[in-house]
């Protein structure tokens, strides 16, 4: 299994996963042109992608789904409520191949199963994903709301995880965001802080977990160095850590 974060953050999210001969994109918060160029920079052709899966309706995850469908012919998988809400925000345009699923169900692509996990994030009908090729399991766990009960046993079942580590609590408290936005971010339907993410990994990381990629870092209330330092202070050297950039594609992460 191979994983490339094409971009991660409130400025746009898109992750590429290749497993069992299947090629999938998760979320479409960056332009089709950016996705095409960033995949090409890592030796991949977006025309070879089998499907686009949308986690929830927020624009940094869904805004370019229509472009991906029309420009590259990708079937779009999302819940019905997610498609309706994303369209209402700013319009996705005409799409001729939308395949709706129920949150909590599984999707089959060849021999690869994608599990959808409902989250308490404040999207309309949000999900996280687990990609299972029969040998390896990858979690794509961002926009989680809070550390809900299912997360620990879920991570214990994974071989690798892309996990949100959105903000540093001190930076958020001292920052310029209006107070209602601060409350939303740190509330039960917002995002995980660095410490919440690190403590979750510390509880859940078993001998099976090979690496974690910290994702969806805030530009205003976090830095890659701050997120890594927090995780290393909790985890020590027991787990290799990567950080998904807000501005450029990651290297190909192997699993």
Labels describing this entry:
Metallo-beta-lactamase, Chain A, 30% helix, alpha/beta, 14 strands, single chain
CATH architecture tag: 4-Layer Sandwich
Identify the CATH homologous superfamily.
Ribonuclease Z/Hydroxyacylglutathione hydrolase-like
Shape: globular
The overall pLDDT, averaged over residues, is: 96
Structural class: alpha/beta
**Radius of gyration, taken over Cα atoms and rounded to an integer in Å:** 17 Å
Measured as a percent range, the helix fraction is 25-40%
Strand order of the largest sheet: 6-5-4-3-2-1-14
Tell how many strands the DSSP assignment holds: 14
Largest pleated sheet? 7 strands, mixed
Tell me the β content: 15-25%
CATH topology: Metallo-beta-lactamase, Chain A
Oligomer: single chain
Helix tally? 9
How far apart are the termini? Answer: 5 Å
Parts with pLDDT < 50 across at least 5 consecutive residues: none
**What is the class in the CATH system?**
Alpha Beta
Tally of separate domains: 1
């Amino acid at each position: 299994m191979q994983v490339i974060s094409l971009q991660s953050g409130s400025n746009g999210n898109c992750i590429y996963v290749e497993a069992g001969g299947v090629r999938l994109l998760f979320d479409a918060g960056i332009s089709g042109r950016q996705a095409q160029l960033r995949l090409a920079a890592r030796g991949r052709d977006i025309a070879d992608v089998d499907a686009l899966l949308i986690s929830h309706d927020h624009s940094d995850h869904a805004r370019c789904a229509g472009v991906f469908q029309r420009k590259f012919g990708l079937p779009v998988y999302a819940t019905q409520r997610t498609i309706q809400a994303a369209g209402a925000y700013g319009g996705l345009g005409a799409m001729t191949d939308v395949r709706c699923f129920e949150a909590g169900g599984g999707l089959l692509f060849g021999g690869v199963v994608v599990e959808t996990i409902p989250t308490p994030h404040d999207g309309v009908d949000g999900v996280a994903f687990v990609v299972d090729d029969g040998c390896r399991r990858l979690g794509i766990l961002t926009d989680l709301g809070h550390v809900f009960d299912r997360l620990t046993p879920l991570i214990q079942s994974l071989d690798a995880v892309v996990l949100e580590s959105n903000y540093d609590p001190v930076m958020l408290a001292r920052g310029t965001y209006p107070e209602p936005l601060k409350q939303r971010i740190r509330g039960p339907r917002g995002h995980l802080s660095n410490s919440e993410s690190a403590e979750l990994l510390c509880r859940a990381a078993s001998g099976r977990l090979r690496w974690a990629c910290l994702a969806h870092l805030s530009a205003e209330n976090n830095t890659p160095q701050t997120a890594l330092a927090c995780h290393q202070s909790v985890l020590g050297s027991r787990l290799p850590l990567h950080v998904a950039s807000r501005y450029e594609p990651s290297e190909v992460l192997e699993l």
